């Protein structure tokens, strides 16, 4: 680790409140991994494994730190007895033996003794979780158990759009509303299908044009370029790809009244939440809107029925309206209101833990 990286690490850990960051490598299979544990105040840290090609190791580290903090707040707002974590497997662009790679990752996770539980994320799948499970029991999202959380993540974002519409326009009806979706992966496509069934008009973009074509052919969506999606005439802009896309460059381009999507860390910096507020654009905080994925873990880890899981995900509607109410009452942007709700629940959870009582699930 370079002196620069070490300085960035400890400064960011202190700033964001992380408990632990660990690194591992296995030269025999080209494995390089990072696990960031933000908080275990409410319970073991949960968060997916991201397999991604980064411009630098520093970029991968910052992503792990930001994503793990978001998981802590996501679980707290969702009322789940978990903390936040995230793991990164750095893709260096060379062909890897996937089984050896993910077995190495599983061994790394196992060294933490249950402080961190993983599942799928960008670049990984339930099949990869099965490989990890050969080395550790601290894994969810397995085939035939938790599986792909994308449909439930999409349902949560859909319910968040309805809540945002109710708050902004006085009705949660999405028929004929124009929704611009950036990213047509598993979540984006499932969200587009829900919106199509609700009668919304869709404009989609993705770096993979084949994914856009699928939505155009099956859902009657319109296509936009990856750059043009920000400036299309729309009622709702929905980021469903990677984070940091609400920034100085894109905010002036937006013509939507609502930003509500599935991507993590949509705001490049907190001040961009202020910038949306200044422009009169209603922002549905990402870790509230996209919490359907982590709620889906209730089936696997708590034995919830699918009916209860769907009910919990549907209730994101009410949670988001609560966030909007806090923002209005306190005169603060919605992203700050979500943080305050999460931090309040973290304090309450810490008090329950110190008193020896576990949170209900």
Question: What does this entry look like structurally?
Answer:
It is a single chain. This protein has 361 residues and is an alpha/beta fold. It has 2 domains: 3-10 and 17-69 and 83-132, Rossmann fold (3-Layer(aba) Sandwich); 150-345, Rossmann fold, CATH 3.40.50.720. It is built from 14 helices and 12 strands. The strands form 2 sheets. Strands 1, 2, 3, 4, 5 and 6 form a 6-stranded mixed sheet that branches. Helix 8 links the parallel strand 11 (258-259) and strand 12 (282-283). Helix 3 crosses helix 4 (126-132), helix 5 (150-169) packs across helix 13 (316-330) and helix 13 (316-330) packs across helix 14. The N and C termini lie far apart (40 Å).
Features:
361 residues; alpha/beta; Rossmann fold; 2 domains; six-stranded mixed beta sheet; 12 strands
CATH architecture term of the largest domain: 3-Layer(aba) Sandwich
What is the CA–CA distance across the termini?
A: 40 Å
* Structural class by helix and strand composition: alpha/beta
Shape: globular
Helix proportion range: 40-55%
Number of strands: 12
Mean pLDDT: 93
CATH superfamily of the largest domain: NAD(P)-binding Rossmann-like Domain
- How many helices in DSSP terms? 14
């Amino acid at each position: 680790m370079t002196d620069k990286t070490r300085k960035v690490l400890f400064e960011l850990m202190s700033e964001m409140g992380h408990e632990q960051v660990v690194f591992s490598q296995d030269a025999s299979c080209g494995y390089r991994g990072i696990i960031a544990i933000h908080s275990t105040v409410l319970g073991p840290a949960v968060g997916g494994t991201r397999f991604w090609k980064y411009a630098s190791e520093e970029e991968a580290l910052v992503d792990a730190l930001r994503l793990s903090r978001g998981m802590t707040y996501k679980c707290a707002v969702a009322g789940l007895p978990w903390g936040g974590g995230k793991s990164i497997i750095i893709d260096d662009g060379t062909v890897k033996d996937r089984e050896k790679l993910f077995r190495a990752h599983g061994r790394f996770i196992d060294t933490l003794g249950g402080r961190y539980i993983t599942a799928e994320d960008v670049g990984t799948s339930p099949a990869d979780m099965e490989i990890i499970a050969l080395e550790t029991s601290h894994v969810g999202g397995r085939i035939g158990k938790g599986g792909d959380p994308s449909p439930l993540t999409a349902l949560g974002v859909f319910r968040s759009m309805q809540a945002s519409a109710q708050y902004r326009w006085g009705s949660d009806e999405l028929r004929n509303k124009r929704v611009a979706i950036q990213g047509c992966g598993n979540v984006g496509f499932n969200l587009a299908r829900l919106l199509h069934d609700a009668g919304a008009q869709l404009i989609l973009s993705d770096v993979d044009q084949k994914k856009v074509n699928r939505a155009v052919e099956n859902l009657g969506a319109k296509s936009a370029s990856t750059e043009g999606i920000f400036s299309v005439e729309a009622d709702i802009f929905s980021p469903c790809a990677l984070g940091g896309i609400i920034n100085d460059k894109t905010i002036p381009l937006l013509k939507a009244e609502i930003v509500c999507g599935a991507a993590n860390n949509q705001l490049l910096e907190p001040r961009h939440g202020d910038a949306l507020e200044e422009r009169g654009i209603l922002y549905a905080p990402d870790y509230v809107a996209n919490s359907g994925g982590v709620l889906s873990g209730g089936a696997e880890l708590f034995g919830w029925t699918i009916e209860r899981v769907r009910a919990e995900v549907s209730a994101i509607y009410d949670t988001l309206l609560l966030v909007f109410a806090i923002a209005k009452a306190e005169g603060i942007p919605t992203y700050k209101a979500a943080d305050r709700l999460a931090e309040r629940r973290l304090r309450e959870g810490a008090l329950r833990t110190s008193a020896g009582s576990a949170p209900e699930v």
